[in-house]
Amino acid sequence: MKQLVDKYAKKLVAAGLAESGAPLVGGLDAELVWNQRSPDSRELGKVFNKLNINSLLFSKPAEPYCSLIEYLVSCADDAIYPGDCETRTFMHDLPVVRTFDADEIARALKQRKSVIIPGRGIITWGRVSPEQAFIFYSSVCFACFVKFFADYLNDSRAGVVSEEQQRVFDTVFKHLEPLPEEPPVLMQGPYQSEAEVYRALSEAGRLTVEYHLVDSFFGNISYLYNNTLYISQTTSSLDELEGCIDPCPLDGSSCTSITASSEFTAHREVILRTGMKGVLHGHPRFSVIISMDCEKEICEFKGQCHIKCPEKRFFEDIPIVPGEVGTGPHGLCHTLPPAMKGHRGVIVYGHGLFTVARDDFNEAFANLLAIERGCRDEYFKRVGRHR
Amino acid sequence: MNGWNGTILHIDLSKKIHHFEHLDSEIYKTWIGGKGLAGYYLHPHIMRSWDDPEMPVIFMAGPLVGTASPTSGRMCIMSRSPLTGTVGDCSVGGSLGTELKKAGLDGIIITGKSDHLSGIEITDKSVAIRDADDFAGMKTGPLYERLKRNGAVAVVGPAAENNVLFSSIMVDDSYAAGRNGIGLVFAAKNLKYLTVKGSGHVAVHDSEGLKRAREDIFRLIASSPVLFGEQGIAYYGTGALYDLMDSRRMMPTANFKRTHFDMASRMNAAAYKEKYAPKRAGCKGCHILCKKVGQEGDHIPEFETMSHFSALLENEDIEVVTRANALCNEMGMDTISAAATLACFSEISGERLSGYRILSLLEEIGQGEGMGRELGQGSYRYAVSKGRSELSFSVKKQELPAYDPRGAYGMALAYATSTRGGCHLRAYPISHEILRKPVATDRFSFAGKARIIKIEEDLNAVVDSLTACKFVFFASSLEEYARAFTTVTGVETTAQDLLKIGERIYYNERIMNAQNGFTSKDDDLPPRFFEEAGSSGTDIEVKPLNREEFLQVRANYYKIRGLDENGVPKEEKAAELGLKWEQP
Ligand SMILES: [Zn+2]
What does pTM read for this prediction? Predict the structure, then answer.
C-alpha cells in the first residue's frame, strides 16, 4: 500500500497537476498509511471511517489549474458543471464544499468521485486503488481547464467578460506551458516483429504523455501487425504500456479484446477503411475546446452536440464529429472511421483527437502535435477577435 | 410504497395454507430486498437441518425488479445449503423475479412439507397447491414445456429427487439457481415446481428521474469493452472470458493440476460461435442479453461450464461440453460442482474420462444410479470416503469455479471468505484483477486485497438485494444504481449508505454461519494451491500461494470485517450494524 500511495503522489507531480510536496495520499488496508506526514491527515483519516473506500488523495493543484479552479468555484454555488463528454459520463458534476471538515467532505464524496475545497484543493477517492483517486483528480483538472477556457471564449464573444475573469485569464495564460516546437524522433516502421510493435507502442504512448498531449491514462494507441491489432488495454496509462497491450486477432478467432481499450472497434475500423497501420488518440486540451466552440445560436440539438450534431464541422482540414465512447448507438465507432478517410486527424466533439500512422508513429505524433498547436493558435485568435 | 410492493407471501406446505404478510417499510429500508431481506427471514431458522420441514425456501426480489432500471430482472433464492451447511443462496435470472413483482409480491417464503409431490401455482394474489405426482422424475425441459403457459416457471429435476447435494432450481428452462444445492431443499418439501404470473405493475416514485439514471447506466455500459465491445459478453456470452483466463494462465486444468489448457484456442467462445451461430437471449428487463442460444436451440454453456467441462476434465470435444451442459440442466444440477466432482473422481481413480464417460456419469448422478450415488454427494464427501480429501477442490465443501486462485490473489482470499463456500461471485475480484475495472490491481499480490475484498463483498450483497446483475458493474458503479434506487423507491440514499447495508447483510451471513460452527478453519483453500505451482507462460510465472501471506491477508480481512481472530463475529460489531449476536 505504501508503495502505491507513493507512486501516485509522484505521478501527480510528474503530470504537472500538483507541486512537489503537495499531494497527500492515504491508503487503507488493515492499517492506514500516508505518503507523507501532514496535519491534514487527521481530518482525512476520519473520512476513511465514514466511507467504504481504500484510498484518499488530497492536493492543491499546480498552476494554471489552481487559479482557474479557484475562479470557477467562486462563480459556482455547490458544484461545477463541466461540458466535456468524458467528465459528463464518468464524473457527472464536481461538488464544492467550503470547509475542510470530515463530515462535509464525506457527505460530498458519498455522492461523487471528487470534492473541491476553495483555497485548499481537490479531494478524490479510490475503492480498490489510489490509481482511481489519481484518475479522478486528473479528470477534475482537465474538466475545469476545458470549462474555464470554453467559458471565456463564449463570454468574450458575448462581450460579458468580467474584470475578475480577465485577471484570472491573464494569470492562467502566463502559466500556460508552450507546446514543444518539434515532435520527437520515434522508432521507424513498418515494425518487423511483435517485440518491435510492443516497443513502438510503449514509446509513442510515453512521449504523448511527456508532451502533455494527454493527461496520463486518457488515450489509446494501436498498430496492425500480422492481421492482429495490438492495442492498449482499457484503463491503461499511456506512459506505462509495458504489459498492458492486448493482441487482438482480426479474424475473430479469440475474444482477447475484452480487456482492450473501449475504442477497439473505432481503431480497427479506421485502420480497415484508411489502409493505415496505426491509430494514436489523445485528449489535447485546445483541440477539445475548439471542437466545442460553435457559434450557432439556435439549434434543435443544443445540449446534445456530443451525440447529435448534424453539421459538417471542421477545424481547418480536420473534421469534428460527434460520438460517445464505446459502441452504443451514438458511439464514436460509427462517426470517426468514415470521417478519417483522407484526413490527417479527426476531433471527436468534446472528447479528443485521433490521428493515423502509415508505417510508424512519427507522422501520427507530429500531426497530433501540429493539430493541437493549430487549435491553440486558433483559440487565441478567436479570443483576440472579440477582445 | 414505491419499488417495493409491501407484501410477502407465506406458504405452508404441511398445512396447505398461505397468508400474506404486509411488511413495514423500515424493514425494507434495513435490508433492501432480494438477498438482504431473504437473510432477514432465514436467520431465525438457520440452525435447523436443511431437510427440517420448517426450514424455509425463500424467493425474494428487490425493489428495482419489474421497473425500468437496467439489468434488474434477477432475484434471490435462499435457504440453508445441504452441500455446505452454510447460508445458501443464488441470484437467478429469467422472468421469475419480474412476474413475482407484477403479482404484487416482493417475495415468497415456503415452509412445511407436502405429503406427496406438489406444485405451487400463483396468479396475482391467488395461490393454488397442485398435485404433481405425475411429474415425478421428470426432467426440467419437458416439465417447463408443460408449465410455461402459467407464467414464470421454477422446477427441480431428477437430481433433486435423487438427493444430489448440488441440485439446482431451473427457472424458465435455462436459468439456473445452480449453486449450494438449493434445489434439494425445494425437493425436500416434496415440491416439484413453482409458477408465478402477475398482471400488475410496480409503482415507481420518479419515473423521469429513473429514465435519466437509466440513460447514465446505458452510456457506461456502451463504453464497456467487456460488456458491449464487439467481443464482449453481449455478443459472445460469458464464454468471452475463456481466452483471457487461459492467456492469463489461470484456467483450472486437470483437477487444478495445471493452469493452462493446450486446446483452449479450439474450445473458446469463437469456436462455439462458428459451430452454433448463436442468437442473443437473456433475462427479462436486460439489454446485455448474455445468454446464447444456437440455431437448433442448443444452449451455449456459460463460461464456468465451458471451462470446467473442457480444461478441468481435459475434454477436447465441444459437443461433449454442450451436451454435458444440457444434461446438467435437464437433470437440474449445478454444472460447476458436477464437473469438478468428475475431475476429482478422475484424479483419485486415475481414469481419464472420455466424452462418453463424462456424459454417462452425469446421467448416473442425476438418476441416482451406480457410481452416481457416491458422486452426487459432491467432490468433498467423495474424496473423504477415499481418504483423499486434499483432492477435492472445494471451500466449505463447495467446488471452486473456473478461476485458479494462484493467478489472482484477491480471488484466493475471496474463495476462502465466501459465506456460501467456493464461489467467485461474492466479491468478484476478477473485475479488477483481470478485467481492469474500475482499474487494474496487481493480481499476484495480496497488498491491499483484504479491504478490497471486504468492500466488494458488501457491494455485491447490495447488488443481489436490489436486485441487479453483477456484470453491469464492470461498467457502472453503485453511484448510478443508488440513483436508480432513489428514483424507484423515493428513499434518499447514496452509494455509501447502500454499502453500509451491504455490510449488515454480509455480517448477518457470517453470524448465521458462526451459529452453525463455522470458523477460520473453514475459511481456507485446498493444500495444492500452497504447494504446487501453476503452468507458467512466457512472461507469466504462476507460483504456489505463500501460506504465511495468505494467513496474514485473512487476518487483515477479519480485522477489517470486524471479526475476531478465529473469524467469528463480535457482539459490538453486530450491535453497530443493528444485529443481535451472542459470542460463544
Ligand atoms: Zn478518448
Answer: 0.94
Mutation for testing the A interface, residue in B300, B451, B463, B486 having most A CBs under 10 Å: B451
Whether A280 is in a domain gets the answer: yes
Same domain, A218 and A149: no
- pLDDT over 80 at B562, yes or no: yes
CA distance A274 to A358: 9
Whole-number Å distance, alpha carbon B315 to ligand 1 midpoint, is 42
C-alpha distances out from residue B431 to A259, A311, B69, B264, Å? 10, 40, 22, 21
Report chain A residues whose CB lies below 8 A from the CB of B234.
none
Measured CA to CA, the distance from residue A267 to residue A263 in angstroms comes to 6
Q: What is the CATH number of the domain that holds A354?
A: 3.40.225.10
pLDDT digits (tens, 9 = 90+) for A89-108: 677 789 999 999 999 999 99
**What are the E-state strand segments in B150-278?**
152-155, 169-171, 175-177, 191-197
Which candidate from A106, A128, A236 shows the least CB-CB separation from B432?
A128
Cross-chain residue pair A50–B496, CB shorter than 8 Å: yes
Say if residue A290 is in the same domain as residue A212.
Answer: yes
Question: How many structural domains are present in chain A?
Answer: 2
Residues A161, A231, single domain; the answer is no
Question: Rounded to an integer, what distance in angstroms lies between the CA atom of residue B500 and that of residue B573?
Answer: 12
The answer to whether B229 contacts A331, with C-beta atoms less than 8 Å apart, is: no
Neighbours of A312 (CB within 10 A): 9
**DSSP bridge partners of A356:** A279
CA-nearest of A303, A308, A277 to A189 is: A277
Residue A184: inside a domain, yes or no? no
Strands (E) in B53-156, as ranges, are 57-60, 75-80, 87-92, 107-111, 118-123, 126-131, 152-155
Residues of B in contact with A259 (CB under 8 A): 225-226, 244, 434-436
Q: Are strands A121-126 and A79-80 parallel, antiparallel or unpaired?
A: unpaired
Cα–Cα distance list, B575 to A318, B459, B508 (Å)? 63, 21, 11
Model pLDDT, residue A297 = 74
Ligand 1 center to B186 CA (angstroms):
51
Residues A158 and A230 in one domain: no
Chain B CB within 8 Å of residue A49 CB:
no
| A contact test, residue of B231, B268, B559 with most A CBs within 10 A | B231
Contact A257 B242 (CB under 8 A): no
Residue A217, pLDDT above cutoff 70: no
What is the domain range of residue A65?
A: 2-175
Could you tell me if A371 and A233 lie in one domain? yes
Is residue A179 within 8 angstroms of chain B, CB to CB?
Answer: no
The one-letter amino acid at A281: H
Residue A114 CA to ligand 1 center (angstroms) comes to 20
Is A170 in the same domain as A247? no
The count of other CB atoms within 10 Å of the CB of residue B342 is: 25
A160 and A203 assigned to the same domain:
no
Q: How big is chain A by its Cα radius of gyration, in Å?
A: 21
| B511-523 pLDDT per residue, tens | 999 999 999 999 9
Residues A159 and A232 both lie in one domain: no
Out of 3.90.79.10, 3.30.160.390, 3.60.9.10, 3.40.50.2020, the CATH code matching B7-197 is 3.60.9.10
Whether A182 is in a domain gets the answer no
